What we know:
mainly alpha, Arc Repressor Mutant, subunit A
Amino acid sequence: MEGRKTKRTEMARGLIQEFLMKKGEGVKVRESDLFEEIKQIDPLITDGVLRGIANKMKGIGGYVPISNVEVVKEGSKSFYFYQGYKFSDGFVGSLQKKLIDFKNELKRDNLWDVSIIGLSSEERRVYLEFVDRFEHLMSMFSFDENE
């Protein structure tokens, strides 16, 4: 039984990535609509499989199980989108990927788009300096988003 479950999860991950790639880079799809589309493509993929993937995508479990697929929360709704990057090979490519992964992790933990109004002056200073330095690091690499 465990083998079929793993196969279905892997199949669902692939279908999610493929579906979002076809929608286009950065095009947001509401979670419920995405799940319905995936279940229409393959009726053997259950809500439980999709919910497990969704929980991991939202950071419950510590990693993002689908490459180049990101989740954003807007109000009470979650949206998925494909964000493809073409990385350099070797060491530089590894650094590029780590930066993107780190930024995705910050977004997932609601630490990227912070309202500075509610921060103390010291927190605001640290946050703005952090964002400035991070953006400087990102600018060192040229990301080809048209993978």
